[in-house]
Amino acid sequence: MLEIIVVRHGQSVADIENRLEGKADFPLTELGIEQAEKLACWLKYKYEFDEIYSSPLKRASKVAEIIGKKYEKEIIYDERLNEMDNGVLAGLLREEADRLYPLPEGGRKYYQCIQDGESLIELRARAEHFFAELIYSRDFEKENKRILIVSHGGLINMLYRTFLNLPLDTGVCLNTGDTGVHVWRVSGKTRVVAASNMQYHLK
Predict the structure, then answer these.
(1) Cβ–Cβ under 8 Å, residues 58 and 26
(2) Active site located where (predicted)?
């Protein structure tokens, strides 16, 4: 069986400045670092990991670094775990983005993208590629493994759809708070969501 623990980064500077992040590379706030440290302690108490993967963007990689030190493990950085590329919106204040690049009537279709960004189809392809390589490149039926993934809300939501084979245009969304933790299990063709958006470590 393969157990996948998926976590989101903590509070970032963009969060408190009300900016759109996406590909913009904002660091964690002091609170975000504190959240990551609490998460690392909680994970160390609960789990052992064979491998740790992370988005290379600062807000996720810092969380992975803090966790990695607890486990004395190297981090495997993978750009496929980056947040959705939001092109010209990256780093803009939300009100500024609404004014300069208003959504078309009815919103953007899943095959459309903002200027210099990627579409939901392209984001799904990234998630599918990463997940397929993770699942099918090794035989987890012969050896139990537990893997940690540190990423971003949008990408985690797409990984969730990938994990459950949900259609791209599904209305099902997975919310993830600061350093929220999800637990997914794969055994043969069976896929189980064992826990979702746990934040006990922040209490």
Answers:
(1) yes
(2) 9 (tele-phosphohistidine intermediate), 83 (proton donor/acceptor)
